[in-house]
Amino acid sequence: MDFFSLFLMDFVKQLQSPTLGFLIGGMVIAALGSELVIPEAINQIIVFMLLMKIGLTGGQAIRNSNLTEMILPAAFAVAVGILVVFIARYTLAKLPKVNTVDAIATGGLFGAVSGSTMAAALTLLEEQKMPYEAWAAALYPFMDIPALVTAIVVANIYLNHKKKRRAAGESLSKQEYLSKQPVAAGDYPNQEDYPSSRQEYLRKQQSADNRVKIWPIVQESLQGPALSAMLLGIALGLFTQPESVYKSFYDPLFRGLLSILMLVMGMEAWSRLGELRKVAQWYVVYSVVAPLVHGFIAFGLGMIAHYATGFSLGGVVILAVIAASSSDISGPPTLRAGIPSANPSAYIGASTAIGTPIAIGLAIPLFLGLAQAIGGS
Amino acid sequence: MDFFSLFLMDFVKQLQSPTLGFLIGGMVIAALGSELVIPEAINQIIVFMLLMKIGLTGGQAIRNSNLTEMILPAAFAVAVGILVVFIARYTLAKLPKVNTVDAIATGGLFGAVSGSTMAAALTLLEEQKMPYEAWAAALYPFMDIPALVTAIVVANIYLNHKKKRRAAGESLSKQEYLSKQPVAAGDYPNQEDYPSSRQEYLRKQQSADNRVKIWPIVQESLQGPALSAMLLGIALGLFTQPESVYKSFYDPLFRGLLSILMLVMGMEAWSRLGELRKVAQWYVVYSVVAPLVHGFIAFGLGMIAHYATGFSLGGVVILAVIAASSSDISGPPTLRAGIPSANPSAYIGASTAIGTPIAIGLAIPLFLGLAQAIGGS
Amino acid sequence: MDFFSLFLMDFVKQLQSPTLGFLIGGMVIAALGSELVIPEAINQIIVFMLLMKIGLTGGQAIRNSNLTEMILPAAFAVAVGILVVFIARYTLAKLPKVNTVDAIATGGLFGAVSGSTMAAALTLLEEQKMPYEAWAAALYPFMDIPALVTAIVVANIYLNHKKKRRAAGESLSKQEYLSKQPVAAGDYPNQEDYPSSRQEYLRKQQSADNRVKIWPIVQESLQGPALSAMLLGIALGLFTQPESVYKSFYDPLFRGLLSILMLVMGMEAWSRLGELRKVAQWYVVYSVVAPLVHGFIAFGLGMIAHYATGFSLGGVVILAVIAASSSDISGPPTLRAGIPSANPSAYIGASTAIGTPIAIGLAIPLFLGLAQAIGGS
């Protein structure tokens, strides 16, 4: 069978997966006005259990792994995380009616990783019996943190430049203004002080802004509930014998819990659509295109690692999916704290309402089908 | 062994079922003042998971079913749902100290279906290894929605008639009053307008009331959390391949989650007893007798379907139990919105404190025992 | 192999258990500032499910047990529960800067039992394949209730004596004061009444205090969420056939749910450390030493029962662990109600921040290792 028919068949098969079915089901019942509510406490514990399971799997695998294999994929993950922000900076941010800072924040969110999307990809890989390195999930923070750090740094540098320019313009016009005014020294004794003290204040501000502290951003990302659950799972997988709870609890419940979370994400995506209408329509275009572009870049880099160091095709799919995914849990609060002037409606709406459904419903089957077609051909 | 001893033995055996045990246990610990609390978020997710499981089972079964078999039982379900409201209208509502609108609302709630009670019946059927059509659970909305719609329509027609009569009496007495008064036209220029404008207002009101809109009630029922979870489950069972999550998650956890819900319902039943004391004691009599009467009517109709179209005895039990059950989740808010003048203490107290325990603890073993005795004799 | 090496090996092996791993992991991520939160609703349902499972196990076992075997261990449990309070009364309470009432309350909490710690011990016994009587978990209330009752009674007797002494001193000084004042009867007609009415009031108070009612304390303990879940489980295990839900739900989920609870307890322990700093540092010393002392006393009494009536070594470990444990759920509210003048920061901080981690992380492996060494040598 030729490459394209293989790919199409695999793609259609995956749409019947319960994972995608629950996502679409959630959107449909939200659109029909269902009053079904999954309580927030349940969402929180589901996210914990999914990422703990992913972490435990990874931790147990790392014990028996040759970690030098991980170096190239991890480096590519870092590269994609940083690149995604610059793509947003030089495409989305340049579009009409798009606020630059909002665009940079959106890039950060699309570069960051969604644990739920990754969980969905792992489930689909297992359903399709496609092998992957168990440590592949541990690539998550290598893409997530650089993306958030880069977005916050780039946004602050931009704001800084803008402020400098504005301050320069202001002091110029001030000087012009002053030069045009008849000055009566005795009357306004402190007048000349004003611009200079203002300039000093601005200079202080700028120097503070120039030194955007990177470590607090990294720390905040690592402390987020999703990432800290996964890292704890890795640590427990490495240093204890968690097989008994893993086999009786975290592993068997994984798919079912994921199905509930997919439902929630579908409902959430529908309810966030309204927020998107408030911002420029270019966000919609970006949210549809970006996951696929990011995914293809990562897929390409993953294939390099595949041929260079034997990185599995399943691993390539995971790398592509985490690139295609956009953060839903840990990303938004970190960005809100790091870029307080960005409009959360823009980046959260774009990610939750469009980015995530595209990543789960389109990018996962796409890259999985692609890998199967490459592996099968 | 004769029919009656067979029945008695089966009845006693079922009282040892954990499902009933947890229900009675909940009542006992609530009576003893236990501070045990099952958080509301847990109740919500349990109801979701039970009805999702029932829906998935049904949806997967419908794929392989001859749905023409379902026509007669579904028609009987609709008939029972409507009939139950009229029974309440012409028995409970006629009793002394019983408010007619409250009685109609109570009839609507007893005609509507409890997902938890149905889940308990399905579990007991499985424990007793009594086969039933997997689509039988899908009879739920066919009884639930007609009951709620009928109750709201009947209540509004009643309120309407009452208003008309009152308005007629009022305008009559107004006319009498006016005819008896010496009219001084110049003094009261707008006097004659008053009754006519009032009548117009009433006429508008009445015409609005006469057109009780049925579709919003149906829609609201379908959008309720319990029913929309079940319908989503049916859709996912029909259109996706949910076997993996069904077998690893929804199916194995079903009984355990049901045991927690039974405990909650037992505790809730005890705590609602107080509300019942506020309303006429006839509600207590109705709540004890009605589930059994409704169940026997449905059991009889089910037996007709059994002999006519081969509807299984297990299916007959399910039809009888959903008739005996009274709604606990989706019914009350729909009724509150549809009949705002009815007193929720009356209908919720009657259903939760007495109707549901009678349905689960008495009607399920009764109809199951009856079916086993019929099947075994 | 000699006794001590056997013991050391067992001790180290248990530190790799996931139960302890999650506890330590919780402390570590809390110390690192993780924002991971396990919602309160989840904690509540986990505690319910653990104690329901322990109760169901016990209830099913008691059906087939010779309960006369239970008499001696139960008597020892009562003795330890009472003794622990008196130990605190005559050690901790005598230390400098320690408030006597706070110390008695702390003793009550350390005498009371933690369901989660007991669950951890049962899990470790099963992991180590060490047999124990299934009714051993039912020793819980025999130690828990006497400890709380004793603490409340002892605290009230102490407060009473203090008040009497103070009242005596006060009325004396009042008399002295009065005797020194020039009395003008007409001016202060009610003056002499004051001390006498005050004394009457105090007398009434004292007589009320002298009759510290024991039954309400027992009742309140039994009604607490943890104990009433366990007792309900025992009752359901005794009187119904809960095997289906036990095998499909409560039993398989036990270890996994315990792992989440251990994580929560670790995080909670860390966050309570601050409270401990507010009270005298002797609480830290007490919290470290007391669990081991109490455990050794109970271990010794358990060994008497082992040689006298054949109480299993696993049962001895359970007796020692429930003595070492300090109550985390049901104890604090009972104590707060029974000894309102005690400072909760003192007893809750000591128990949660140090007592529980010591009991789980040190006492369980210690007594388990000791029993294995005794059994193996």
TrEMBL record, chains A, B, C:
Keywords: Membrane, Transmembrane, Transmembrane helix
Superkingdom: Bacteria
Transmembrane annotation, as ranges: 20-38, 45-62, 74-92, 104-125, 137-159, 252-270, 282-301, 307-325, 346-368
UniProt xrefs under InterPro entries: Sbt_1
Organism taxonomic ancestry: Bacteria, Bacillati, Cyanobacteriota, Cyanophyceae, Coleofasciculales
The protein, known as: Sodium-dependent bicarbonate transport family permease
